[in-house]
Amino acid sequence: MKNEQIGAIFDQLADLLEITEANPFRVRAYRSASRTISTTSESFESMVKDGTDLTQFQGIGKDLARQVVEIIETGVHSQLAELQAQVPAGVVDMLRIPGVGPKKVAVFFNKLNLTSLDELKAAAQAGQLAAMKGFGKKTEQSILDNIDMAAEAGKRISIAAARSAAEAVVEDLLKLDSVTQAAVAGSCRRRKESCGDLDVLATSSDPDAAMDRLAAHELVDSVLMRGGTKQRVRMKSGLELDLRVVPDESYGAAMQYFTGSKEHNVVVRQMAKDLGLKVNEYGVFRDEEQIAGATEEDVYAALGLPWIPPELRENRLEFDYATAGEMPRLVEIGDIKGDLHMHTTASDGAASILEMAEAAKQRGLKYIAITDHSKRVSMANGLDAARLRTHWAEIKEARKQISGIEILCGIECDILEDATMDLDDEVLSEADWVVAVMHYGLQQPREQIMKRLMTAIKNPHVNIIGHPTGRMVGKREGADIDMTEMLKAAADHGVMMEINAHYKRLDLDDVNAAAARDLGIPIVISTDSHNVNGFDVLTYGVDQARRAGLTKDDVANTKTWAQFKKLLR
To answer: What pTM was computed for the model?
Structure first.
């Protein structure tokens, strides 16, 4: 049982409690516990087995600790099961609509007796929502505009959830003596930001044992299909997973084939055909003779190509790199030396300045920027000028208490809806690092969105645009941005671009991060951490950068502190 899975159960419980209009204090307690568990690097399952006191973690009291134990020991949460029986699955689906949270869903369910996305769509089309207190025509139209996206989003899960599930299956299969190799394939291996299904490959002297093992896995809900060497199961998350047991001599070919993408494989097959060869999931063949297939390296070598990293296999530039013999060494997590977006208890974080600095130092980072929210984000206790200056004074004091890591006085400053900055230039000029972001008004027309972005980019004190589009993967579309115009302006004014590493954001996406790189814009991969375990999401940001083809030289926070500070405006 992975931490993310436990956290997801508590999140589901909080949603259902809010929909059924339960005590809001209970709802907040579950959300707090979910965040703590999901961002803790140490395994809660291991701690339970070792008898560790879970109440040492922020937001986890005795009752919640007992529930964590129940989840780990039984795989379920009894109260969640009861609530799921009360609230139809179609009601929960409504939460996927951008801008619709549990409170709105509670109205749909309790006041209008709506139990599915189709029923909600019909009610909106009939004008029923606009007539409800607290809604109106604008909200009703927004729901109509986004409800189809919500239906589609239900078919995919985040890369974090996908990796957690697929890697848990692989880890379990490798415990069998008969399984000699096992690995994740498909879009999950390519590290796409969301996955519609999962693929796992294995070699085994006993395929039946491998399939029995998968069928009995705690994450598996049911077996949908089983053959001699292939099995399809439905996970408890609703996602389907295919297990294929292949011969040793075909393992590399199968990994290449089932990793994809389809577009990449079309080119691979054509290249093979041009050489008088045939390539498929069983191997590379010249007539009937198999000449490669045991490893991916052999498959690509048979076509005269170097091994291509899975993250690049989208038929963009990977074949240009490969045929030119210049396959880039993609950035790796060990290259990252700084994290330039994080929060403390000064706004909505859960740790102090020193606690965040110590945690970053333990992970090998050499510099960080503390970037708490500006005042516009009132729900996150954002800072006005006076509080911010006091906060920066505290950061300067903290510097004296820790060695081996630099701490920048930063701010995550909102770009307001009227195209002004949330703090004036006099304040921003005193910062070491300014992250300009849009949190509100993301549905404004492109003209106004671009006016806001130009205000920030042309401001001499702004260092970087953070999570530039404001999107939430599978949940909320980003702002309507003219990317060409924004990136050209950023290049002209020396402003960097962020890849926000949290798996719910991953913003910039891979395509636009590559476009920024091509314009010479330094990319910063930051975690947006809100507690000491928030740094763990860095891996997803690095994966996104790798999908963009970024190398160490393209990422600004791979530089040493002496090198990086020369980039500061």
So the answer is: 0.80
**What secondary structure does DSSP assign to 137-189, as a single string?**
HHHHHHHHHHHHHHHHHTT-EEHHHHHHHHHHHHHHHTTSTTEEEEEEEHHHH
Contacts made by residues 388-392, CB under 8 angstroms, sequence distance 24+ = 388/423, 388/427, 389/427, 389/430, 391/346, 392/430, 392/431
Neighbours of 407 (CB within 10 A): 20
157-245 is classed in which CATH architecture? 2-Layer Sandwich (3.30)
DSSP 8-state assignment for residue 107? H
The correct answer on CATH 3.40.50.1110 for the domain covering 3-153 is no
With a CB cutoff of 8 Å and minimum separation 6, the contacts of 253 are 279, 280, 281, 282, 283, 284, 292, 293, 296, 299
Helix, strand, coil share of the chain (percent; to 5)? 50, 15, 35
pLDDT digits (tens, 9 = 90+) for 233-289: 988 877 899 999 999 999 999 999 999 999 999 999 999 999 999 999 999 999 999
The DSSP bridge partners found for residue 198 are 241
Tokens standing for residue 99:
């801008």
123 φ/ψ angles, rounded to the nearest 5 degrees: -65, -40
Superfamily of domain 333-567: Metal-dependent hydrolases (3.20.20.140)
